[in-house]
Each structure stands twice: as C-alpha cells, then as structure tokens.
Write a structure and sequence with these properties.
The complex is a heterodimer of chains A (351) and B (266). Chain A is an alpha+beta fold and 351 residues long. Chain A has nine helices and 20 strands. In chain A, the strands form four sheets. A six-stranded mixed β-sheet of chain A has the order 6-7-8-3-9-10, with helices on both faces. In chain A, a hairpin with a 3-residue loop joins strand 11 and strand 12. In chain B, helix 4 runs antiparallel to helix 7. The chains are: A alpha+beta (351), B mainly alpha (266). Chain A: One of its GO terms (cellular component) is ATP-binding cassette (ABC) transporter complex. Chain A: It is an enzyme of class 7 (translocase). Chain A: Pfam families: ABC_tran (PF00005), TOBE_2 (PF08402).
Amino acid sequence: MGYLELKGLRKSFGGQPALDGLDLDLSEGELVSLLGPSGCGKTTALRIVAGFETADTGHVVVAGKDITAVPANRRDMGMVFQAYSLFPNMTAAQNIEFGLRLRKASGPERAKRVDELLELVGLGEFGARYPHQMSGGQQQRVALARALAIQPRVLLLDEPLSALDAKVRVSLRDEIRRIQTELGMTTLFVTHDQEEALAVSDRVGVMSQGKLEQLDSPAVVYREPASAFVAQFVGVTNAVLGKAASGAVRLGTFTLPTDAAAELADGSDVKVIVRPEDIGIVEHKGESNGSLLGSVLTQSFLGPVTRLVVRLDGDEQLVRVDQPSNLAAAYPPGTAVALDFNASRFLVVPA
Amino acid sequence: MAVTAKPGRKIGGTVLRWVVLVVLGFYFVLPLVAMGEFSTRGINNTRSLDSWTGIFSDPDLVDAILTSVELAVLSSVLMLVLLVPTMAWIRLRLPKLGRLVEFLCLLPLTIPAIVLVVGMAPLYAWVNYFLGDSPLTLTFVYAVLVLPFAYRAIDAGLASIDLKTLAEAARSLGASWGTVLWRIVVPNIRTALIGASLLSVALVLGEFTIASLLNFETLQVQVNLIGKRNAGLSIAVSLACLVFAFVLLFLLSYVGQRRRVTVVED
C-alpha cells in the first residue's frame, strides 16, 4: 500500500474525458513524475490530488485516509505552480510564512522557520524582497520554500520549471531533487519535459489520453518502453516500417527474426521501434548479403555522439543511428553501410 | 535615405497641441473662474468671502453636506461588499456568468434617472416603512447607481492579477475562501478598489435627480434650494463640490499609477 494512492480516477470536462481510470501509488519519500503531452490528463490528476478539481469517480488516499471529499485548504498539500504564484503584495519571507500564520504559529517560530527555508533554497539574503524584485528562478525557489513551510504531507509540482530558461531549469531541477531527497518528501511532479522527468524521478509515469501507459524507473521506461507511444515520447527513437513474416519482420530484403512478430498476422504492416544508439553500423562493400543496407545521408555532431541519418536501400526510409563521435568520422555522407539490429533492443508493434 | 521628421512639421504639431490645450483649458476653466468670481462678489464692487464662510453657518446646508458625505461612504462600502466577492467568485468558479453580471452592472447606466425613480418610488415606500425615512436609505439606490463605474474599475483590477493561481496557492497553504478574499484578493487590487470608491464618492456627491424626486435633502438638493434665495452661497458650495471632485479624480490618477515592474535576470 502506498503513501499517496490515486484509485480509479476519472474526470471529464464537457464530455471530453481527461482522466480515464488512473491508478497510481506513491511510497513515502518517493518522487514520481507524470509525463505526457499536453492534454494527457497529468495536470488534471495533480489538481485532483490538490483538491482544486473533483474527480467524477475514484478516490485519493493519503496515509490510508481517504481525502477525496476534503477541501483543498485542509489537505496539507504543498503545491508549486508554473509561475506567478507568489503573492505580489508580500515579501519573500511573508510569502513563506503565510501558511504558518494560518496555522497560528508563534512569531519567533515563524521567523526561525522562514530563515531555515530561505537558507534551504539558497536565498538567505532575499527575505525582504518582493516578488517583482526577483528573477523567475528565485521566485520559484521562494514558491518551493512556501510550499515546504507548512510541512506538507505531499509536495505537488505543476511544471514548476517550464517558465524558466534552459540553464536555470537544469540547476533548479537538481536542487528540487536534492531538497526532496534531503527532506524525504513524497512528491508528485507533473511535466511535459521527458529529460526533466528522467533526471529527477524515482519512477516515471508516462500518460496518454487520460491513462497511464507505463510506470517504472527512468532507466526501464527508457530502455524497455511498454508501448510505441512511450518509446516515441521518451527519448529519440526510430519507427521503421516493415511486414510481419512468420516469426520475423521483413524490412525490404532484410529479415529480422523476433519472437514479438509471432503474434502478428503474416504480411501485416508493423513498426520496428528502435533507439538510435541501439543500432550497430558497419561499412558495407560488395554484394548484398541479406543484411539491412543503406547509405549515410547526413551527420550531425551532438557532442559525445554523432547522429547519422541513414537512407535504407529500396524503400528509402530514414533511420537515425548514433555513434560515438570519435568513430563517426569513418562514415562520411555517401558511405554505403549495413545496419545491425540483432544485438540491440527493439520493439515490434502493429503499424 | 533615412526618413527624418521635418523640423517644420514638428513645430506645427507642438503649436497645434498648445492651441488645443489653451482653447479647451479656457472652455473648462472659464466657468470655474466665473463661479469663483461671482461667489466672492461683495457690495459696491468689493471682494468678500461671505458666501464661502456662509457655507458653515447654514445649518440645513451643513446637515446636507454631512448626509451626502455619509451617503458617499456608505454607498462605496456597500458597493465594495457586494461587488468584490461576487466578481472574484465569478472569475474563480463561474466564469460563464461573467457576461450576465457585467450586463447587469452596466444596466443602471442605460436607464434614465427619472425612470429609475418611477420604479423606485413604490419600493421606497416599503424601505421607509421598514427602515424609517432617513436620507441614508438612499444608500441602496446609490450602490446600484455606481455599479457600472465600480464594475469597470474592479474588473480591470482583477484582470491585472493571476487570480486563479494566487487563490489556489493560498488555498493549498490552508486559507479559507474568506482569507483568500481578505488577505490575497483585496490587497492585490487595492488600487482598483480605491479607484472604484473614489468614482462612487464623486458620483454620489453630485447626484441630484433621484434624491430630489424621492424628497431627500442631500447636498445637491440643498444647493438647488439655496440657489433660489442666495445665489452666491449656492455657487460657492457648487464650486467647493467641483474642486473636491477634481481633487478626488486627481488622487485617483495618482494612486492608479501602476507599480513599477522590475525585471530581474537569473
């Protein structure tokens, strides 16, 4: 049994389903990300946990207690919003102590707590600043401190980094993770940025059309995507079209033996989903020998790896292949190459 | 070749601006100066402040001034109490009703005062029956009368803040709806509320038709009465009223200046 449980949450807006039976368990101290394209229901799920939306059916349980009917202001959820959520009429310190005041904490107690939290988010000197005197990143730090001040049972993060520029985004994301781990705070993090989700989470839940497609550790979600949607949403991937043929997939003249094809009708269209770094490449000379052949079209240097775009012979599909940058020089554009899927992981799905 | 403004045209623009300012300024200020001149006329071409000092020695007039000031304050308060929670709630929870409420609030602007009175008279018979015939009962009709102006001011104030996010942030920190309204909404639209109140005060102090037709002795009604026996005094009071309204409007534009936004880079 989890610390925070979402049980069979359903919600529709004007007949349009936003959540279609969402089940999710978070253990105490765990950070789980909900990742998905806009409109997949991740924000709706978070808002239901926060108490800002009411689920049509389903329950939200915290520490064994059903809080589905508890109003937002009595849920003890710390929430950090996308942006502009600091009270403009209050200083950073007053923002942070707002929740403590409502809980009737004494003056000295509040002051002590505010100092601790400002220190925790690295803004020791900024207590007297008003929100409009702070940068976006600093404002989000204060917002985090404010959410933590009430010692919430669950921390809810609603795309808190999406309004920040790239550099601040990365540093703040690492900081959120550090603080979350330090405090052992159970956290539900909603984002559409897969890199963000993979970087900070204990588990990532990939959502599509109101449903959880996969819920697993970042490595598993990346290495072993449960569906074509997950594979294509998380990380860069190829979807190579082919035909199922008795326990194998035919890509042009190349035959890729796979167990996954056994369940598919012979001759049906399939997609082979494979990541660029999972494809082997060798220079090819001479006659066709039944391997997957093509020629290098372009190279793009991405730092540690270089991405080759290979055009397959025959049907001219484009396949992306990543090679360590020091090896990629061997395959300048125009090189005839043979690709190797066998040693790697791939997924076969109906097209 | 780069296009530059011709000096001649620039000077022409400046001259035009000054001409407009002087002509319109003259148009507006002349009556005020004339009122000032008239109200300080003494006997035998001397200057005298008798009309002005007379303002405070006429007990009926002092009563009327107090009544009008009380009415102005009460109407503003009633307007704020009615409008602020309603408008905040509509923005937060019932956005579909926004149009309807806006329409209702703007309605008093389209109905002539005389029509309002015809509708109000039977209603006021009941009001007087239950609450007595104090002129302060005019508060109810004045609160309605100021709705169009107050609505616009408060609506602009609410639009300038991210009400939904702020309210949700406060809610998640444990605030009741009352706390959200009092601690978050009101302080952040303070300027708009002051604006709405000042407009209401100016409107109530200048209102004549309804008070007169419902037989209440407010400032403007008294000014009208006095005008029949002491023109100097009535002009002095009118001028004082106008100046007071101008000061209010000046304050309004002063408090209405937006807080300077500081952008801080990360």
